[in-house]
Design goal:
222 residues, mainly alpha, 3-stranded antiparallel sheet, two-stranded antiparallel sheet, 5 strands, globular
Length: 222
């Protein structure tokens, strides 16, 4: 892969650099900043760029596809199969029986999980320190579900990127959990990056598996 392609730009005959792919546009200049915090900021930005591009083509059928028995879903209140749920509104996440539960998850569940995780971390770092994850609203409809995740991840990204380098390792900048309150903030950014990469990869694999075995609807969720 050519250096220009690797960085998502091309310098063709016109001499104009243009993003080769991805939305939102990624600020490649962060890759030249020689600090530890720039590394995690760059990882966050690029990881979200890749996932956001896929989510823009997500269909309703893909969102709610159950890849196996006893799949964890996002359903309207009263339709849940699980004795435990999360969500205060019309839609709830079915919560697993335990931390080691082997239950598969729908894309809807994975989107909702990322939404509540980023919502709580943003609220208890940059927000009013009031709302916990059990106050986060979910949706089982593809448009609102993706929009909700996009909104909170982009808010988190904007505030992380705006944080001065000298504050990146402030202990207790986030009060979301006991561990967060005792840790330099950059460690939390790295942890949330892992969540985004981990669950984003699951979303993309489930989308690929669905498309390999079904006739899909035309994409249109940009």
């Amino acid at each position: 892969m050519a250096h220009g392609d690797e960085h998502g730009t091309g310098s063709g005959g016109g001499g104009t650099d243009e993003p080769a792919y991805g939305s939102p546009e990624f600020d490649w200049s962060v890759l030249s900043v020689p600090t530890a915090f720039a590394v995690v900021r760059g990882q966050l930005g690029f990881s979200w760029l890749v996932l956001a591009d896929r989510l823009a083509t997500l269909t309703q059928a893909e969102l709610e596809w159950e890849p196996g028995p006893d799949t964890l879903r996002v359903v309207r209140r009263g339709e849940e199969r699980s004795p435990r749920t999360l969500g205060p509104g019309e839609w709830v996440m079915e919560w697993p029986a335990g931390s080691e539960s082997p239950q598969p998850r729908t894309i809807a569940w994975l989107v909702a999980h990322l939404t509540e995780a980023y919502s709580e971390r943003w609220e208890w770092t940059f927000g009013g320190h009031e709302r916990r994850r059990d106050a986060v609203l979910f949706s089982g409809e593809v448009g609102p579900a993706v929009a909700g995740l996009r909104d909170v991840v982009e808010r988190w990204r904007a505030d992380v990127e705006a944080l001065p380098e000298e504050e990146a390792f402030t202990v207790g900048l986030s009060q979301a959990t006991e561990i967060d309150a005792q840790s330099p903030f950059a460690h939390l950014v790295a942890h949330m990056n892992r969540e985004l990469i981990h669950h984003g990869a699951e979303i993309m694999v489930l989308q690929d598996l669905y498309r390999a075995s079904h006739v899909t609807e035309p994409p249109g969720n940009r």
